[in-house]
Amino acid sequence: MTSVDEDLAFRLLLSTGLSAYLWRQLPIELMCEILLIMASNDMIDARQLRLVSSDVNVLVLPIVFRHVILLLPKHVTQFTATLLPKRKNYIPALKSKLHIMPRQLSSYRVDSLVLVVNNQRPSIESAMASVGDVFCGLTKLAITCQNLSSNAFWLRKHPIHPKIMLLVHYGTPHLVNFYDPIFESVTHLYTCITHGHRYSTVADMPALTHLAVSTRVSLPATTALKVAASLKAILETCDRLQRLVLLMGCAHIDESEFMMWEGWLEGCMKDKRFILFPDFRPPCWEWLDIVNGEHTLWDRAIAWPQELNGWSDKETFPAIRNWPGHEWEIDLVQRDDYHPPEDDPDARGEKDWLEALANH
């Protein structure tokens, strides 16, 4: 670290009470530890430290990328460009470090990943595959069913086994294969579908203990009966399941709708593991609580007044709204105003999901 680098770093350390003299007397190992602690405690400081020097940038990168959120194609490009060498080929005459990878990809410790990119470009899959090693320690994953399908190849090539997953979508739910290795270690799943490809269901996930699904109140009776039958089958076949939460937005539910859902879910409500929970919130809010270590939706559902099974003060709860296209959704049925893009080769959505459900 040069003297200029030291001066820039020292500006960030003024709040610690260290004098300039004392800072310069510290061994480089202790300097690095202090910088890492600063970066860990405040993400703003971590980003500022990246500007100190290339060495400090490399030092704090694993902290900056502890939690990764990729929502647009450009986010994927920027993320991979930061982790990979700037130049692929070594040119000795230039004496440049641009061909050198900043640090080994396996040295990163990404804990959570949001991969919610509403685009099926092959370049996105190739870019993610090039940095797949950084996700080997992943414990939390939020991903669309479409992204999971398009990135399945590189995900299988790496030992990526999250414990908590959110399966989201844009407009209409898509099928996945619950036999896929990505689901092997998942204990907590918040999903927009319960049945998938090859007659797979969430009950086929070997480690699943907590399941949550959500849908709207105003469903056709035939669809609601299929949903209720699916949930009942999961409760009957998945002995290791400790909690199944069905979330609904119940802003303006009337007594007749409530009575119908009581009848449809009668078989589920007999099971003490099942909770009908009207406190629906956008899935991105639920994700923030999970990543920040706050009470999860399963925690809130357990705390709900059990004697009313979660239906008191029904008019106070937010309804499931029609989300803008850039919002991620978790809903067992297709959004009313959804129009799949013409270039989407897998835009079959709800029809396939209901057909898969009916086959079980």
List keywords for this structure.
alpha/beta, 360 residues, eight-stranded parallel sheet, 15 helices, disordered N terminus
Task: Give an overview of the whole structure.
This protein has helices at 3-12, 20-25, 28-41, 43-49, 54-64, 73-83, 122-130, 145-150, 152-157, 221-237, 255-264, 266-269, 283-291, 297-303, 350-358; strands at 67-70, 112-115, 140-144, 164-168, 188-191, 210-216, 243-249, 274-277. It has 360 residues and is of the alpha/beta class. The chain has an 8-stranded parallel β-sheet with strand order 1-2-3-4-5-6-7-8. Helix 10 links the parallel strand 6 and strand 7. The longest helix is centred in the middle third of the chain and has 17 residues, at 221-237. The termini are far apart.
Instruction: Count every helix, treating DSSP H or I runs of 4 or more residues as helices.
Output: 15
The level of helicity is 25-40%
Helix-strand sequence? HHHHHEHEHEHHEEEHEHHEHHH
* DSSP E strands, number: 8
Residues in β-strands, percent: 5-15%
Contiguous low-pLDDT stretches (5 residues minimum) are 1-5, 307-326, 343-350
Computed over alpha carbons, the radius of gyration is 24 Å
The main pleated sheet reads as: 8 strands, parallel
* Assembly form of the protein: single chain
Distance between the termini: 63 Å
Class based on secondary structure composition and strand pairing: alpha/beta
- The strand order across the widest sheet is 1-2-3-4-5-6-7-8
